[in-house]
Every structure is written in C-alpha cells, then in structure tokens.
Model the fold of this input.
Amino acid sequence: MNYCLDSWAVIALIENEEPVATIIERLLEHRPYISTVNATEVFYVTNRRSGIDAANEVMTILRAKTRIVPVDINIATSAGLIKSNHKMSLGDSFCVATALQHSATILTGDPEILDVKGKWKVRDLRQK
Done:
C-alpha cells in the first residue's frame, strides 16, 4: 500500500505524540511519499522549535525513510486546483496532490485535510 505523509504526521512523530508516533514508525517501513513542500514545513517548524541541528537531522531521516517528491508542473497544477476548490492551506493542497499522483493514502490528523470531502484517501491519525 502507498502512503503519503502530511507535515502534521511527521511533526507528531518528531514530538513523540502517541499513538501517532508508533503508527508512523511502523508505516515508515513502506517508505511513504512526502511532498518537498511538506518536507519544507517540517524543516522550518523543527528549526524554530529545536534549532538547525535538529532540523537537519529530521531531513536526513526523511531522505532515508521516505520518498521525497519534488514539485513538477503536474503536481503544481493539481495542487492549485485543489486549493482553489477546497478550504485548505497551500501545503495541504500539495500533500493531497502528491497523494493523488501516487495513488497513496494520506496519513494525517490535520482537520484541513480530514474535514474536506474529495477523491483522495485519508487515514485519520487523531486520537479517538
């Protein structure tokens, strides 16, 4: 099965938020996709909270355990359509566009993705 990480999921992993961290650790075996836009979000959030060394370490882990997808014109166009038709952040629209391109299930707890009905598959990681 293909998965696509939203920055919400990676930040929850970094901050060791359970049960999300355990779920993501297990699913890293599948080498999930992540958009370069979402990797950028993870980098700047980690840098702000924990400094550049921690941010660089997270990027090293993402390079080793995920498939980082660069933005091309197809993903950019898809993200633009998603953003214009749904109420979500630009970063979230790139996550959705990346997932759609790779027929992947989005792993997130972000309400901006979870609360929008679309043709994408989502796994809700929020605690119930």
